């Protein structure tokens, strides 16, 4: 949904640039990404950005149709919807 609407950026470099420009409200990092990658993004991300790390790179890649370990969501409304869905799934 976010990809079709143009609110999804993917790939480490692209997501990093978008974070620096303060255009990201959620980052999804694969739980099997390297520890260095996870630390780099955690150091870069401010409190206003939600981090989700409960999906594998395979699950992320299947969801968007591209091989990726890092996704960024730029729309706060979609971020809110994803948070609500994740709460329902983890109950």
UniProtKB/TrEMBL annotation:
<feature type="domain" description="Ribosomal protein eL8/eL30/eS12/Gadd45">
    <location>
        <begin position="2"/>
        <end position="76"/>
    </location>
</feature>
<dbReference type="InterPro" id="IPR029064">
    <property type="entry name" value="Ribosomal_eL30-like_sf"/>
</dbReference>
<protein>
    <recommendedName>
        <fullName>Ribosomal protein eL8/eL30/eS12/Gadd45 domain-containing protein</fullName>
    </recommendedName>
</protein>
<dbReference type="Pfam" id="PF01248">
    <property type="entry name" value="Ribosomal_L7Ae"/>
</dbReference>
<dbReference type="InterPro" id="IPR004038">
    <property type="entry name" value="Ribosomal_eL8/eL30/eS12/Gad45"/>
</dbReference>
């Amino acid at each position: 949904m976010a990809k079709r609407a143009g609110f999804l950026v993917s790939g480490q470099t692209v997501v990093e640039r978008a974070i620096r420009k303060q255009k990201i409200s959620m980052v999804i990092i694969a739980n099997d990404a390297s520890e260095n990658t996870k630390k780099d993004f955690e150091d870069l991300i401010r409190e206003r950005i939600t981090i989700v790390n409960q999906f594998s790179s395979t699950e992320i890649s299947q969801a968007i149709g591209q091989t990726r370990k890092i996704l960024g969501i730029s729309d706060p409304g979609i971020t809110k919807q994803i948070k609500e869905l994740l709460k329902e799934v983890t109950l």
